[in-house]
Amino acid sequence: MNEFYQDLLSPLMYYWVQLHKGVHVCTNSCKLCLTHDSIYGVIYFHENKMVELMIKDKNTNHHLFDLCFELYDIKTALQQFHQFFHYLKHPQLLQPVQQDKKHVCKILLAGSGLTTEYFANALQLLVDQKKLGVFIEARNYHEIERLIDHYDLILLAPQMAYMFDTYFQKYGDKIKMIDALDFATCHFEAIIEKVIQ
Asked: Which of 23, 41, 44, 131 could form a disulfide with 52 if both were Cys (CB 3.0 to 4.6 A apart)?
């Protein structure tokens, strides 16, 4: 990635987000806020090119959507922001999913931080409750090459979306992306439904 381009990406995305209807600067210039009905969104632009997208319930202050990612390329950044704005306007999107698909397999959840470990544990808990016979483990995405043969499926966390095309060309359908909306809203049921067939 060209460093000049990457340095421009953060101010460019900040300016683009600020142009959206209803978005205003919050307590400091690195924080943008917007509200919609009974929920509100906050966007943090951190110094290290990290962005945090958060949606909370106005009444309970409960997190409904939480996604942190590095501004690596414009395509991936736009995908994450579009998911955020779409959910902000349509929070009812998360519908119950069918639970009748079962398949025993070993899944690697590949990401780059503690959130990935948390997700793997939460998904493992859910598949154990459903007695699906699935093993899910979190590892750093740098380990995919070394571990690919030990797993039936590799799930990439949304923060790694910029790597998907590269991995898909090498490994095909063995690599799947976790939908950013499902990841950010902790919709574990939907993730299991989409990947365990």
From this structure: 44
Boundaries of every domain in the chain: 3-93, 106-195
**Mind listing the pLDDT tens digit for each residue in 34-83?**
887 789 899 999 888 889 999 998 888 888 898 988 888 888 889 889 88
Dihedral of CA atoms 182, 146, 114, 45 in degrees, nearest 10, equals -70
106-195 fold: Rossmann fold (3.40.50)
Q: Is 186 left (phi over 0), alpha (psi -120 to 50) or beta?
A: left
With 0-12 CB in 10 A as exposed, 13-18 as middle and 19+ as buried, what is 2? exposed
